[in-house]
Fold:
Amino acid sequence: MFILAAIYFLVDAAFWTLARPVIRWLADHWIFASLRTWVMSLGPYPTLALFVIPVLILEPAKPFAAYLTATGHVVSGLMVLGVAEVLKLALIERLFCISRDKLMSIPAFVWCYAKFQHAQSWIKSLGAWRLARRAALIAKRSIRRYVLAYESRERDQVSWQWR
Structure:
């Protein structure tokens, strides 16, 4: 069970790294401004209860995406998984950023958050995590270089080879 939980959290952490630019773009959308005002008016415990909503609504999309993928609808499964994860992470990240100070007034939340931070630092200290981050950075730079070269119409000089 521990291995399955570790894999789940590693996949979520890796997806978070890849989805962060999209989430930042979504966070600037107008609907989040009105939600921010409403969330700021709530107390600590109602704010904590809000975290359940995106998880309950969007977490079932993972098994549904796995079902779609297993039945041969790979693109649809990946699309469902990607959209659900981006929405879930955007909502949870925005809620946490808006209400961090209120949530830190709840002792049980502070304890859980400290445990989460400890687990996160342990994962980031693993060699596999550092290797994955390095590969993601190399891929990001390669894609950026390719896009810039494509935009400047220098397609003949674009290479996907590792440097």
The CA atoms of residues 57 and 88 lie 9 Å apart.
